[in-house]
Amino acid sequence: MTLTIKKPLVFFDLETTGLNTATDRIVELAFLKVLPNGTEEIKHLRINPEMQISEEAISIHGITNEDVEDAPTFKQVAKELAKFIEGCDIAGYNSNKFDIPLLVEEFLRADVEFDMKKRNIVDVQIIFMKKEPRTLEAAYKFYCQKELIGAHGALADTKATFEVLKSQVTFYNDLPNDVEELSKFSSHNKNVDFAGRIIYDEQKRELVNFGKYKGQLLEDVLRKDPGYYSWVQQADFPLYTKKIFTEIYLRVKADK
After folding, report:
1. What is the dihedral of CA 210, 215, 216, 222, to 10 degrees?
2. 50 and 150 share one domain
3. Assigned domain for 191 exists
4. What pTM was estimated for this model as a whole?
5. 77/31 same-domain check
6. Residue 177's domain is classified under what CATH number?
7. pLDDT per residue over 182-213, tens digit each?
8. Is the dihedral of CA 86, 90, 93, 95 positive or negative?
9. The domain containing residue 109 runs over which residues?
10. Is-contact 96 187, C-beta < 8 A?
């Protein structure tokens, strides 16, 4: 079955210096853009992370510091990448929890606008975990009946993710063949920010999801404790979390 796509859908995968979405950096990325007419476009880059790659990460993806020392930095290619995925929905494997938060952090550090709010986001891993809990290699073997050659390489994993999603739509009769509905199905939570520090309640109001104010409306917290905003901005939170705090803080100030 052909995947129903109403606007361009970008499958992507990142290889990184480590597993901390707030502090680690990208060393390799692959974007596979699938257009509604079935045309595919690929962008595959090595990135100089401007920091040391952890030994644990090297043992997984095999990319060393020497491999990327002459590669461009993310800031040098950020505008090009943002343009490539402009107006596109996004799909990945474990992307909601790791790849998207880290990618957003990189764009924020590069001072390049990258708005995720108007995009459908499909996490193929969540669909797989809800249907058949396994790894990407097992998903590829199960749905596509093929061995994944080059696993943990960004391009191989990206192409495999695309093939797995197409097969999932064919395999499950009750799975919607629509990116917007797949985005809803592959979401686990109601996070406002990717780190889950702020979540929506049933009325789509933002709640604090950590610390002493957990469960309270963020707008109320900012009104009764103005210093809370400054503390968040100075603390070790992801840049995107701080950005969301700022948007809500400015909204509260405007309502006064």
Report:
1. 20
2. yes
3. no
4. 0.71
5. yes
6. 3.30.420.10
7. 988 887 668 899 888 999 988 889 999 999 99
8. positive
9. 9-185
10. yes
